Amino acid sequence: MSIGNPLIRLKNINPKYQVSQKPLKDVAYYLSGIAEKNHVILGETITLMESTSPSKVVVARKILNSIIETPRPERLRIGVTGPPGVGKSTWLNAFGYFVSSQGKSTAILAIDPSSTNSKGSILGDKTRMDIIGRHSDVFIRPSPSGSVLGGISRNTMESLLVCEYAGFDYICIETVGVGQSEIAVAEQVDINILILQPGSGDDIQGIKRGIMETADIIVVNKADGALTGLADQTRYQFQSIIKYLHHQLPHWEIPVILTSGLQSKGFTEIMEQINKFSILSSASGYISEKRKDQGLKWFEQQGLLALQHHFLNNPKNKTKYLEITDKIKDGTLHPIQAIDLYLDLLG
Ligand SMILES: Nc1nc2c(ncn2[C@@H]2O[C@H](COP(=O)(O)OP(=O)(O)O)[C@@H](O)[C@H]2O)c(=O)[nH]1
Ligand SMILES: [Mg+2]
After folding, report:
1. Is 222 a pocket residue for ligand 1 (Cβ < 6 Å)?
2. Among all ligands shown, which has an atom nearest to the Cα of 261?
């Protein structure tokens, strides 16, 4: 069943819309562009990975295979999580600048919450990040969060690999900032930085334990201006509760650090803690073990999705599946019986 050409559908919405269709280049073009940290080609490659068009999927797969088969030094994968509005994007901009002033490079993969249906907020973030985006040591890539909860999709793993191949010293993922996405990001990174608001310490009960447990470093951000005192107080509150959290890396005590992304404050301490974590966890084999576990979990999750996708790709299966879900919706079929019917379909 054809869903029609998406480009033609776009034209129907806006008759003045000009589709710029760049010709597909060969694998060598992308690979050498990535290796040179060429921002335009990096962006093109990630777009290619996000595409579902069959010819692009073939090229994307070849690029990924080459990348996987060419061992490169592992780079630290950093997750930046926290509720919306806590200052994650601003913080990462400041972090990128700080890191580049120390002669190192950063890639920032910013997952955009509201861009599934509109490009609006992507462009918003892109404009804000544009100033820094021109800086060659800092590559910023906003990506639509897509349909997968928390925006951690298959593409995140692919984008990570591309940035690793490019040789960025740090690869950061910024989340959407809803409960589940924190956990999903923590499952793809080596170190997770949880950013919180001044004053959030009063609501410690409201911050789910599961989310607190994903944190390797806790940051109380916006420690500037009128919020300075409150931020300090919040830091003490978190310091008193982290004692009760168990961290899997032996001898790691979760630091609670004050920062201001807006005023670029606190980043020396952040780097010290990141380096400390990196040294401690590499030496003990913690990161390589964690990556293997993450890889297995990723495969299991993606494997399930792939199975479902493959099954529903068959129009006959899809029709029957929709019949079942419709009956559950209108209350004429119990979910337990629905599962039996579904299993019958699988044969
Ligand atoms: N006072 C203060 N405000 C900040 C800071 N960082 C971000 N903000 C403000 O907080 C709002 C949300 O910032 P943003 O970076 O988009 O947050 P995100 O949703 O977590 O990515 C914006 O209005 C920022 O100007 C900071 O360090 N100090
Ligand atoms: Mg943001």
Report:
1. yes
2. 1
